[in-house]
Amino acid sequence: MGAEARRTAVRYRHQQPVGMLLRELREERGLSQFALALQTEVSQRHLSFVETGRANPSPDLIGKLADRLQLPLRERNRLLLAAGHAPVYRETTLDSVELDAVRAAAHHILRAHEPTPALLVDRLWNALEMNSGVVLLAQLVDPSLLEPPVNVMRVTLHPDGLARHITNLPEVRAHLLARLRRQIAVSLDDTLADLYDEVAAYPGGTPSHPAPADTAADVLVPLRLRAADTELTFFSTMTVFGTAVDITVAELAIESFFPADDKTREALRALTPSPED
Fold first, then answer.
1. Alpha carbon 87 to chain centroid, angstroms
2. 92: in domain
3. Do both 105 and 178 map to the same domain?
């Protein structure tokens, strides 16, 4: 789908009645009407009426359907508004006093992970905080890409960013683009759709040399970076805040990178300045 077609599709879905939107979300997840009705303990007839606009879903039913469809809090509010109900989830700014404990927890996790890279990102993949390991990797990136807000997808895939140092760029690129497509399908977010169109247009690159056979590539997509005449190999995890009932908190994630081999672990220690430096 082209850039304009993608944006048009996202905007069209924003304007859809709640029933049509629920039907599309159900079909995207491969659920039959009967299966969704059964799992949410509502009659198939009533769900059919909701999807065709003959019945308006109650806030309680929207909550049950959203649980089964695994919708983020922002999209749950959007469904409630589409059905004529008031949104129930608030969105607190990250710098508010109410989120002091959240910021402190994220800061602790990032620092505890040093010298290995870790960073806190929002739903748009903007970096909100990063540890010294990420700062070290940022030296490989053109300074123009590090002007706030620093976008992780852009920094990773831009030709002047990490992409020029990633030796398995096609695999990493495919993985990140697929992740963005999944987010857009659920969130209907114009900004994410624009970001996808931008980074998808960047060149994909080719590996500089064949990847070793006995590495993390057998079980996940590693990130292989050529830095200081050494290839660093990482895998990453995403950590979110459990039981979040605030949109801002629910959309935060900490991406933590881990050395995939001893060579990377030793190289990180060597590249990390000592406290005396």
1. 23
2. no
3. yes
